[in-house]
Amino acid sequence: MAEPVFDSAAYKKIGMIQQRQKEYFAMRLRAVGGDLTTGQLRKIADVADRYGKSGVHLSTRQGVEIHYVHHTNLEKARQELASAGVSMGACGPRVRIVAACPGNATCRWGIIDTKTVAHDLDQRYFGVETPHKFKMAVTGCPHNCAKATENDIGVMGAILPRWDAKACIDCQLCVNTCPTKAIVREEGPAGDAARYILDEDKCINCSICTSSCPVSAWTPAATGYNLFIGGTMGKIPRLATLLKRLIPNKEELYRLIEKSLRYYQEHGRKKERFGHTIDRIGVEKVKEEILHG
Amino acid sequence: MDSDIKKKIDLHGVACPMNFVKTKAALASLAAGDLLEVILDEGEAILNVPRSVKEEGHQVVRVENLGETFRVVIRKG
User: Fold this and answer.
1) In degrees rounded to 5, what are phi and psi of residue B37?
2) CB < 8 Å to A215, chain B
3) CATH number at residue B46
């Protein structure tokens, strides 16, 4: 019997990846921000038992994959998963499943509602065609657990700390715990209290000073989103470029993400990740065109 | 301020969360308003213990960098 021939690009588009065992496929499932209900997990386990090898693979980007599904069972397996609200992921040159950390819903450090942002981005862009793969991640704060800076689009919760001279007791905890030494203590002139100065260029907008200050002399003067573009791991790793800090609202955040994605669609070459497009054209030029073009 | 310190404990080399547990126990032996001096390691210890102390209602009043450790003075709340 002749070996079956598959249009692997068409399968990849719907998250089905041909294995080296050519009759078998890996089914990549869509878990936005790594979230699945227990009911969905049971259904996935059930499908993996019946059509796979009674196991799942957890991908590096929070995805769940069922491996060893025979090509004749793909459609049945897909329909059963769909009955529990589990849809297929994506592979190939398009926007992938959006990854996210738990964010401010549960994490004590979380500054933003990562899940809402991840779902909004998923709704707008999942599966949209791009020159090469395109990954997005949303992380609640500059601890960067969701690795926003390793993604083509990275959203990070951020605060701008402000110092209140009246509240400060000059304990120096902030100076000693700021991870980037962005806070400097300046001795006051004889008799005057010391001053604390924030170097906004060095500040990474985390909330270590505001959350540990014993007297709330450091408080968040502003909360927003830091937007990164052009991060990638892979064969030629490149950490993301900070496009804009402390974007005050989702509307502006989404407008800039839209512009960034369009820019890549217009200027990116085939098999060229967004970050490499940015480097080819020039970081400052690309930033300028996205921000003000 | 140093002459007012009622108790000193050296938690160099003591990992989280034991360093906080020991800090808490030391504070428990003091009266409200008393000062406790704690030596804490750099890294996790200096990040976590002062924050946990704050959550328990006490106040860090002085932090001095000693190199790989910190001298932290806490006022019992």
Assistant:
1) -105, 130
2) 59
3) 3.30.110.40
A173 with B47: Cβ contact below 8 A: no
Distance of CA A34 to the CA centre of its chain: 11
Query: Tens digit of pLDDT per residue, chain A (293 long)?
Result: 566 788 888 999 999 999 999 999 999 999 999 999 999 999 999 999 999 999 999 999 999 999 999 999 999 999 999 999 999 999 999 999 999 999 999 998 999 999 999 999 999 999 999 999 999 999 999 999 999 999 999 999 999 999 999 999 999 999 999 999 999 999 988 878 899 999 999 999 999 999 999 999 999 999 999 999 999 999 999 999 999 999 999 999 999 999 999 999 999 999 999 999 999 999 999 999 999 98
> Which residues, 6 or more positions from A217, have their beta carbon under 8 angstroms from its beta carbon?
A163, A164, A165, A167, A168, A169, A196
Contact assignment for A176 to B47 by CB distance below 8 Å? no
| Count of A-B CB contacts under 8 Å | 33
Question: CATH assignment of A161-220?
Answer: 3.30.70.20
For chain B, strand residue ranges (E) read 5-10, 35-41, 59-65, 69-75
End-to-end CA distance of chain A: 58
**CATH assignment of A99-158+222-292, given 3.90.1150.10, 3.30.413.10, 2.60.40.10, 3.40.50.2000?**
3.30.413.10
Number of independent structural domains in chain B: 1
Candidates B49, B51, B58, B69: best to mutate against A (most CBs of A within 10 A) is B51
Alpha-carbon distance A156 to A58, whole Å? 24
Nearest CB among B51, B59, B63 relative to A176 is that of: B63
B contacts of A219 (beta carbons < 8 Å) = none
The catalytic residue positions of B are 16
Query: Chain A: residue nearest B52 by CA?
Result: A212
**Measured distance CA(A51)–CA(A25) in Å, rounded:** 11
Q: How far apart are the first and last CA of chain B?
A: 17
CATH topology of domain A8-83: Alpha-Beta Plaits (3.30.70)
